[in-house]
């Protein structure tokens, strides 16, 4: 049986350990290298393999590498300066440098469509969120660090225009990818017992 053969289940202690210990790497701890073009393509293909009601693929990607990060940062800086004209220039410079914090930034755009067969737009947004998370998992499994951020500029109209968002599109996330300069510390996790009840009617 080839390793690509689909199986109903695939028990793996290694995958469980991976999932149970998974963490994001904060962008402040991100360094080069990031994934190269072929690795990015692989990460996006893997990230796209998510549950998707009626196979609508309600998402798309914009990749930012090299100078594109600096060039797009000018839009972020300009949007910040316009919204905060009283802020000092160095703050605008900081904002313009946001995409330079990691070697690769992938914008995951949620693109919900009117589905005549009835898939609600909310479900399509969930699919785009699943893409973001699967991207973090794929990148990590390939040895790269990642963080899912939106910050303020995901919600800024001028930045959205510069991204070419149309209609009901929205930024599901900016996935920052690179290498980790240090291992992350543990982060508090929810008390799942407190969040779970057996339904008794
Ligand atoms: C949709 C979404 C947006 C987020 N945006 C931000 C953000 O703007 N700033 C931030 O510090 N963390 C943000 N986070 C949180 C981080 O991605 C992440 O949860 C945190 O770094 C720890 O995650 P971990 O459980 O993967 O270690 C966001 C998370 C999600 C799901």
CATH superfamily: NADH Oxidase
Per the principal axes of the C-alpha atoms, what is the gross shape? globular
**Order of helical and strand elements:** HEHEHHEHEHE
Fraction of residues in H or I helices: 25-40%
Topology:
Elements: H1 13-21, E1 30-31, H2 37-47, E2 59-65, H3 67-83, H4 89-96, E3 104-110, H5 121-141, E4 145-149, H6 157-163, E5 170-180
Antiparallel strand pairs: 1-5, 2-3, 3-5, 4-5
The structure holds flavin mononucleotide (FMN).
Report on the structure:
With 201 residues, the chain is of the alpha+beta class. The chain has one domain: NADH Oxidase (3-Layer(aba) Sandwich). The protein has 6 helices and 5 strands, in the order αβαβααβαβαβ. Strands 1, 2, 3, 4 and 5 form a 5-stranded antiparallel beta sheet that branches. Helix 2 packs across helix 5. The termini are far apart. The model has no long low-confidence stretch (mean pLDDT 96). The protein binds flavin mononucleotide. The site of flavin mononucleotide has 9 residues, from strand 4. Flavin mononucleotide binds next to strand 4.
């Amino acid at each position: 049986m080839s390793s690509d053969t689909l199986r109903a289940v695939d028990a793996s202690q290694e995958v469980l350990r991976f999932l149970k210990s998974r963490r994001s790497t904060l962008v402040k701890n991100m360094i080069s290298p990031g994934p190269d073009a072929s690795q990015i393509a692989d990460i996006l293909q893997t990230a796209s393999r998510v549950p998707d009601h009626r196979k609508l693929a309600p998402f798309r990607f914009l990749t930012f590498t090299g100078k594109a990060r600096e060039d797009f940062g000018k839009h972020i800086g300009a949007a910040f300066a316009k919204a905060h004209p009283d802020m000092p220039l160095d703050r605008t410079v900081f904002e313009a440098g946001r995409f330079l914090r990691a070697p690769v930034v992938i914008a995951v755009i949620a693109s919900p469509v009117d589905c005549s067969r009835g898939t609600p737009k909310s479900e399509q947004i969930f699919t785009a969120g699943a893409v973001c998370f699967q991207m973090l998992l794929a990148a990590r499994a390939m040895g790269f660090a990642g963080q899912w951020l939106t910050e303020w500029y995901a919600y800024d109209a001028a930045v959205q225009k510069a991204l070419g968002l149309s209609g009901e599109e929205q930024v599901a996330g900016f996935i920052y990818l690179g290498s980790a300069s240090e291992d992350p510390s543990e982060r508090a996790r929810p008390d799942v017992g407190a969040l779970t009840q057996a339904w008794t009617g």
